Amino acid sequence: MATKKANTNDFSEYKRKFWQLFAYGFLGVILLFLFASWGFFGKMPSFDDLENPDSNVATEIISSDGVVIGKFFKENRTPVKYEELPQHLVKALVATEDERFYEHSGIDAKGTLRAVVRLGRDGGASTLTQQLAKNLFHGEGSKFILFRVIQKVKEWIIAIRLERQYTKQEIIALYLNQVDFVNGAVGIRSAAKIYMNKEPKDLTIEEGALFVGMLKNPSLYNPNRKKRAQLVLDRRNTVLGQMVKNGVISESKKAELSKLPVKLDFRPESHSEGSATYFREYLRDYMKKWVKDHLKEDGTEYDLYRDGLKIYTTIDSKMQQYAEEAVYEHLKNLQKEFFEGKKDQENAPFVDITPEQTQQIMMQAMKNSERWRKMDLNGKTKEEIIKSFDVPAKMKIFTYEGEKDTLMKPTDSIIYYKHMLQTGMMAMEPRSGHIKAWVGGVNYKYFQYDHVGQGARQVGSTFKPFLYATAIEQLGMSPCDSIIDSYFTMPKGKWGIDADWSPKNSDGNYRGTITLQKALANSVNTVSAKLIDRVGPKAVVAMAKELGVTSDIPEQPSIALGAVDITVEQMVGAMSTFANQGVYVKPTFIIKIEDKNGVVIDQPVPVTKDVVNKDVAYAVVKLMEGVTQSGTGSRLKWGGAGFRNYDYSFGNPIAGKTGTSQNNSDGWFIGMVPNLATGIWVGNEDRAAHFKSTHYGQGATTALPIWGIFMKKCYADSDLDVSKEPFEKPDDLKIKVDCWTPKKVVDSTAVPTDEPSMDEFGL
After folding, report:
1. I need a labelling partner for 375 at 20 to 30 A (CA). Which of 13, 44, 403, 537 fits?
2. What is the pTM of this model?
3. Mind telling me which residue stretches traverse the membrane in this protein (predicted)?
4. pLDDT score of 273
């Protein structure tokens, strides 16, 4: 009997210890959850954190026609709303990742119990909400078991809070916006764009299944890795199987979709590729200053790469595309001519410089190279670095047929790139000042200097309309007034010159008495010299400044022939003033900027200024029309480019001006129709590298064809509504512009008021 009593007591003792242990364990779990929720094991997200999770949202650059042309990001994430997700994608996600998603409140008790019993062999039973909690606030965490348990507890707490804070639909959207699909694609919108070149709403069922399949291990199931094609296909089909199991699609539909191959339209997004690359970099520099001048309500700066701003720009995505295509099409042809012309030339591509000057150019190029920078950081001497430039190395080089792998001495690669023609092109609306296209070079990846906003180059004869405008305004002249094209010398000392100045015409000929219209049309230098001698350089500089030119302009007579460096951006803005009836509108590229919640935080106001009256502006426009009717730009009417027969055949009025620097280093063309002004510069990086002959080096050959190709594309697109109408003529115009008007029959004793003045400057 005594033995039996002892056994009973022993059993009671076991029960007491069990319940004691259970109580301690239960209390420990309660305390663990409480301590975790109070932040004892690390900060927990607050109510505000849950309401506005830190999500590294990319800033979007949006064109005037609603196309995202680029982004600024640390992580390439652009949020998508639940309504923008296709239902088959949502159902595939739930069927594969969390079948009881709509039944639980953040924690799947049944799945968790199964995971504990099976020791995680069938998965960790993390719900979508738990995965979201981890992605938002913790990441992968520690591999140490104790820390992993604490992290899992925190995930449970955050998941429950998320379920209270958000609807199921919002949780799904948040989840898909957070997932990293590799290859720079964070979130489903970026993934759809990069892998398929689509918006999420346009994804097909099999494409949606592909992305859901990637969630298990995005790197392993990366569809852009050809070696893993079968693995990716099998994983996608597994997701389709889950969709059948959960009644999303039928077995027959799965069989049909499973046979389809994985098709990608892979377009990785980077800062150096895509549309409007030079403009985007110019915008980035602008935004660096903008964030300092436009602070948040709490006084902190916006983060351009994380705060999800939306920058609505004036750029038109189609015009931008046409501009880039026009540049590529013409320069591809022109570059062949340049290489051909330099083939047997000594010291190519440089012309008329000494060996010492060539060496100086080469040394500067070496010092500016990435090779020099890296070797210098690694402690190499100057001599060792220079010597390395003569050792052949594997490299990729830019060609118009695409990137080319080659073995080349770095010095030879420098010479190769010195041969490459560069360009700057900008188009804007004269009335609004909105910049519609911006091409700063031929390829941003290889040539990052922006020849629109950064590069000021000698403008040549494109400066002459500023001089003619000054003469018309100050001397009361008209395009129909005559002037003598003859040998002219400005004496030493006049207007501050230190030697006699006798400019020559480019063809070496003199035409005698001609109208101002014909003088500008044929870019007659002697006439420009006579005009600036009459009005003075200071007045011309003042006119250019009023027209928005901010570059340094010397008050010297030589500016009459364009001996001044100005950017494409400034030249187009200035010329647009004449097309806008004498009102200068500062070129602008931003319509508005919104924060990630769609609140407008900046909306720039156009900067305008009256510069000349309508009559003077219209007279200059008519002068520039003469350039394309019978002057240096007349090939726009019949085609040709000096070496290629481009078919333009424009029949509408075009105001334009070509320009060529003295040694052919710079070729320009500014072309305008009533609602679009476009300027183009073409030349080499170094002014010592250029065409030897004006036949090839003039603006009519290098720059004008780009304008022609661009405008043909614009006119072919009716959505752009680019004008073919005449420029608006002011009411009661007081300046004579129709120089071909027949002479009136007048009394021989009367003063011929309707005849062109044959006396220079009315003297």
Report:
1. 403
2. 0.83
3. 21-41
4. 80
